[in-house]
Amino acid sequence: MKTEKLELVCPAGTPAALRAAVDAGADTVYCGFRDATNARNFPGLNFSRDELGAGIQYAADHGSKVLVALNTYPEAGNAEPWHKAVCDAADLGAHALIMADIGLLAYAAENRPNTRRHLSVQASASNPDAISYYTDTFDVKRVVLPRVLTVPEIAALNKEINVETEVFVFGGLCVMAEGRCSLSSYATGQSPNMNGVCSPASHVRYEDKGNKMVSKLGDFTINAFSESEAAGYPTLCKGRFSTQDKVSYLFEDPTSLNAAEFLPELMEAGVTALKIEGRQRGKAYIAQVVKAFRTAADAAARGEVIPDLGLEQITEGQRETTGAYNKRWQ
Amino acid sequence: MLTIKDGNKTMSQPSKLNLGPNLFNWAPEKLRDFYFKIADEAPVDTVFIGEVVCSKRQPFFAQHIPEVAERLTAAGKRVIFSSLALVLTKREVELTRELCEMEDVLIEANDLSACAKLAGRDHAVGPFVNIYNEGTLKVMEAQGAKHISLAGELSRTSLAALGKAATVDLEAQVFGRLPLAISARCYHARSHGLAKDSCQYVCDKDPDGMDLDTLDGDPFLAINGVQTMSYTCANLIGELSDLQTLGIHNFRLSPHDTDMVQVAKIFRSVLDGEIEPVEATEKLDELMDGLPFANGFYYATEGVKAKGAIEEFGL
């Protein structure tokens, strides 16, 4: 069924970013607690219980909702922090909890049944049978789709499932199936699934080698930049490597996703909500991106052409991709 | 034979050596003959067969599956059919459904789509399904999982907690390059300047995966079509007895283009107390032509690291 108006789901890593997102027109803001219970467990980021309570109140006062991401996989023998996070987020009035782990979904369904459950992209549910499993077993109300599906695939999927879908439209782009990647822990011992971090800053080093700047993750060189290039962050899957004696960005160029041009097609495909990645970003970035996508979503709802959003300067490596939405990406 | 940890269970449990699904793109005849040899000579209990990595490869070996399964079964091996790890297209959904509708066989689910279809009957769950904790383990057990192969990323601490909670067989991969990621994109095709749709099946050029080096020329990862693997070969031969104290008695060997019968015999010898892990590692090193070993995940550190019996044979 065609969507009339897309919901705009925006990131917030700090209370200031949450207010910036709400002020810029976010329908919904998502955030996480300051620990390993969410997949942006970065130093200086995220919310205390009090900050989340205040954030939910601020959003409510301005007609917005708050979702709480609890999208890492609880550690065996130590589920308590995740269970407490489910209860606290629900009791503070979160509109929904975003989860990936089956055990945690079961816990939330049993202990806080009245708080909506959303399936995180980290669950990598990429087909109707997997999605129906989560809706039938845990009464999941919304599924965040993996960033590997084309628009026609999303349209076909929506015809076969009975649940809201949310898709990424802007920001960092995972090229691997989300939640099924341990590249980061192979090199650093820290992974998105277990620690809530990918290619963590604690393991990043830049080495000045005279005519080039080398970026390393753990013991491995991820990239090298000449003086004319800006040295980017060494996210493992956006590095330059050598296969068959050829150097390339084999996995993905250091680009970020911008699917603004696909908004009309995503509405046509029956998508409920658009997600912007970037809880690690500052409030100025959040304000700019949310405002731009508010304009785009409103234009799409009126059936107008999507205007140029002018976001090229703030994307990773100043390069954009439409990612898997375009079939040629594969 | 070791006495297992749970005070309620005083029986000792034999350790089992299993052969995981072949993850690489080998010629169908080569793979058929590989399984015939395994059937005739390898001291393994269970053999997992079927395409896990790429649905495009699936049709080629399909014709040999009945004879391979029959030969393995006749040799006294248990055969389990493994499902695809990444299910995206309509065809992949249908392949998975067809597999899960097969009766009188055991199937290993590697995606939640297969778990959904297999719920309510006895089945296995593979390492591509995320089971990180007791909560998820209990859900899987309740749905009928009888054999669960855990992901290579789990540390000893996690394995211990899962081993304590489990009422079904748990398995850990103890040999072979570790699957680290899977993607809709094919990196083998990309490396050859080809699109996935017209990949010419170039992953068949690398029967153990294609090496990926850093810009310094250091080996780092291995590419296997849509899958990215460790460059190093996981090797928990020094941890086998420790794993048994944790309640893990099933050990998975992941096939490589070497003499896997010998690999299985070496692991069996260590399990039977006939040779020491260090001596076994030297033999494995010869069989793998010096490919570095790793076991860092077990020790809750970088997966690439090598500790204990294999330390001298690390990267």
Task: Explain how this protein is built.
The complex is a heterodimer of chains A (330) and B (315). Chain A has 330 residues and is of the alpha/beta class. Chain A contains 10 helices and 15 strands. Chain A has helices at 15-23, 49-61, 80-91, 102-111, 128-138, 151-160, 183-188, 192-195, 263-268, 283-301; strands spanning 7-11, 28-31, 65-70, 96-99, 116-119, 142-144, 164-171, 204-208, 212-217, 220-226, 241-243, 246-248, 256-258, 273-276, 320-321. In chain A, the strands form 3 sheets. Chain A has an 8-stranded parallel beta barrel, surrounded by 6 helices. Chain A has a 3-stranded antiparallel sheet with strand order 8-9-10, with no helix packed on it. A two-stranded antiparallel sheet of chain A has the order 11-12. The longest helix of chain A has 19 residues, at 283-301. Chain B is α/β, with parallel strands linked by helices and 315 residues long. Helices cover 32% and strands 22% of the residues of chain B. Chain B has helices at 28-41, 58-62, 65-74, 90-101, 112-118, 134-142, 156-165, 187-191, 240-245, 260-271, 277-287, and strands spanning 2-3, 12-13, 16-19, 46-49, 78-82, 106-109, 123-125, 145-149, 169-182, 210-213, 219-224, 227-235, 250-253, 293-294. In chain B, the strands form 2 sheets. Chain B has an 8-stranded parallel barrel with strand order 3-4-5-6-7-8-9-13, surrounded by 4 helices. In chain B, helix 10 (260-271) runs antiparallel to helix 11 (277-287). The longest helix of chain B is centred in the N-terminal third of the chain and has 14 residues, at 28-41. At the A-B interface, helix 4, helix 5, helix 7, strand 10 and strand 11 of A face helix 4, helix 5, helix 6, helix 7 and strand 9 of B.
